[in-house]
Amino acid sequence: MTTDTTEVLGGPAGPGENDGAGAGRGAAAGASAPEPADGRHGPRMNLFERAPGVYRAMVALDRAAKEGLDPVLAELVKIRASQLNHCAYCLDMHTKDARAAGEREDRIHLLSAWEEATGYYTEKERAALALTEAVTVLTDGFVPDEVYRRAAAHFDEAELARLISVIVTINSWNRIAVTTRSVPGHYQPPGT
Fold first, then answer.
1. Locations of Gly residues compositional bias (predicted)?
2. In this structure, are residues 127 and 150 in contact, taking their beta carbons and an 8 Å threshold?
């Protein structure tokens, strides 16, 4: 996400109206929707309307988590977690936010194969992406020590705490968006 944005689940106009892991601007709202006749998945609910306190808490967590982190790095982390979680809504949002923050197209396109994309990502970014994958997938129920040590070598403790918080937050947004079947394609970054 860019520094001015937060996640949104179909919230009203105002701060964060343009971004999030739910039915953001232009997406269908409502308690539920019938399945489209062509077999595509339709939205299930507008979480903001049904649980506004949860929405507000998530927005606050998102803002606090990314504070002090490089916005481009935060977007790379959000895109990678969203790829792993198969969250189309968040992929749409965070690729757009990454572009708006100045990220290059080739780096966005190669992100799913970042380990093989030698020369495209810094060692710090690679450490953040490895940690993102470990936290998102939780292989064998834990984050391997070597992955954590690698990240700790590139981030001071406050930065590392923020990075972990961004990873945890995007995973929560992904799970909300996937579960509620938030519709991608309507999000526009602020100022565009």
1. 11-27
2. yes
**177 burial via Cβ count (<10 Å: 0-12, 13-18, 19+):** buried
Residues in the chain, total? 192
**What whole-number distance in Å separates Cα of residue 85 and Cα of residue 83?**
5
Determine if the pTM surpasses 0.90.
Answer: no
- Alpha carbons 192 and 39: distance in angstroms, whole number: 32
What torsion do the CA atoms of 10, 63, 168, 154 make, to the nearest 10 degrees? 150
Q: What is the largest CA-CA distance in the chain?
A: 52
- For 33-70, write each residue's pLDDT tens digit: 455 556 567 789 998 899 999 999 999 999 999 999 99
- Cα three-residue angle 185-188-190, rounded to 5 degrees: 165
CA distance 71 to 10: 23
Q: Computed from CA positions of residues 96, 99, 101, 106, in that sequence, does the dihedral angle turn out positive or negative?
A: positive
